[in-house]
Amino acid sequence: MRRPIIAGNWKMFKTPGEALSLINDLKSLISHVQAEIVVCPPFVDLPAVVVAVQDTGIKVGAQNMHWEQEGAFTGEVSPVMLAAVGCQYVIIGHSERRQYFFETDEAVNRKVKAALAHGLRPIVCVGETLAQREAGMTGTVVENQVRTGLTGLPQEGRENLVLAYEPVWAIGTGKNASAADAETVIAQIRALLADMFGAETAAKIRIQYGGSVKPENIQELMAQPNIDGALVGGASLKADSFSKIAGF
Ligand code: PEP
Q1: Cα–Cα separations (whole angstroms), residue 15 to 29, 75, 150
Q2: Atom of ligand 1 nearest to the CA of 173
Q3: Which of 212, 221, 236, 242 to mutate to test the pocket of ligand 1 (most atoms within 8 A of CB)?
Q4: In which residues is substrate bound (predicted)?
């Protein structure tokens, strides 16, 4: 059985003070939920949020990282630093990083390896653009992203991977993929993982859907056999909507 995982990607929203207020509001609202809950605030909020979630069961993740442990990489943050402040997860290869910061599948691969090597659980994002979907390329695009992004991983710890299928056209647009369409692609991803890592490992890896998830569509998504959770952007910024999604 794969434990559902609902993660909130706060993107570039919330000062440390605003972050604490959101966590405070969330605490009581999600105390009963069965799913694993992860919040991914901006870097500067991480230390305060790690302290604020103590004893709540909420886990904390970052939104990006560099693959090196340390070095002359101005503006970057390393996996060692994230682990040291108490992060357990890190989002890797989000489409906004790919689109605006030119992150390649090769960079994603280095980051995934570095995250696992430092005990962080990567949430690896893949997904096609609208043009790619309309050209019938969804399967090929996602396959390339998964194969290149996850190539050469050591045997140990592969089951700690989380994947997020996020069609780019559904992110922040209010247009979500239908539950059936999301299930089709996510089932393909699981088959691909079985080909790469073996069926037993593939059956343990959790795969989320992301793209305009809201309280109104979470149940239908979670009812699909291969969808193990959601990566939530906009709706994770308010305690009311995120807690409803978390309790789906
Ligand atoms: C995201 O940022 O990963 C995302 C899915 O955003 P939204 O829920 O706002 O579409």
Answers
A1: 21, 18, 33
A2: 10
A3: 212
A4: 9-11, 172, 212, 233-234
Which letter does DSSP use for residue 209 in this model? E
- Structure tokens of 117? 């090597």
Q: Are 105 and 148 in contact (CB under 8 A)?
A: yes
Prediction pTM value:
0.98
Quote the ligand 1 centre to 111 CA distance (angstroms).
21
> Domain holding 218: CATH number?
3.20.20.70
Give the structural domain span for 147. 5-246
Residue 121 phi, psi dihedral angles, 5° rounding: -95, 115
Interface confidence, given as ipTM, is 0.98
Tokens of 236: 């994770």
| Cβ(49)–Cβ(35) below 8 Å | no
- Express each pLDDT in 137-151 by its tens digit: 999 999 999 999 999
